[in-house]
Automatic annotation (TrEMBL):
Gene3D superfamilies: 1.10.1660.10. Pfam families: MerR_1. PROSITE patterns: HTH_MERR_1, HTH_MERR_2. Residues 10-78 form the HTH merR-type domain. SMART domains: HTH_MERR. GO terms for molecular function: DNA binding; DNA-binding transcription factor activity. This is MerR family redox-sensitive transcriptional activator SoxR. Keywords: DNA-binding, Repressor, Transcription, Transcription regulation. Signal peptide: none annotated. It comes from the Bacteria.
Length: 122
């Protein structure tokens, strides 16, 4: 008897890559680091759920903010299996807070560099 991936895990690596705007190697990278999750078919092919492309698109935004892939995976660990709009809203709040904190820290570093002090003493 052949066992297939659950019905919710139907998307191939190529489909997720196309929907998220990344290469297939990037999909596998994000899977390896826990940003997306796949089930394996009886033929050992990866199958992703409908949230995989969204997770990758959000991860790309988070990386531009400066978060590491590990930090992103930790944030996504809080998401339920089938994320709803309010769940993504909480992720957005977290990313906004991180972006604001990192922006404030960068501004403080810029101010310090403009202060006239020797750089090695900052």
């Amino acid at each position: 008897m052949t066992v297939e991936a659950p019905a919710t895990y139907t998307l191939t690596v190529g489909e997720v890559a196309a929907a998220s705007g990344v290469a297939t190697s990037a999909v596998r990278f994000y899977e390896r680091h826990g940003v997306v999750h796949a089930e394996r078919t009886s033929g050992d092919q990866r199958r992703f759920d409908d949230s995989a492309a969204c997770r990758i698109r959000v991860a790309k935004v988070a990386q531009r903010v400066g978060l590491t892939v590990r930090e992103i995976a930790d944030i996504f660990d809080e998401l339920p299996r089938d994320p709803q709009p309010q769940d993504w809203g909480r992720v957005a709040e977290t990313l906004i807070r991180e972006a604001e904190e990192r922006t404030a820290a960068l501004r403080a570093h810029l101010d310090a560099m403009r202060s006239g002090s020797r750089l090695c003493e900052l």
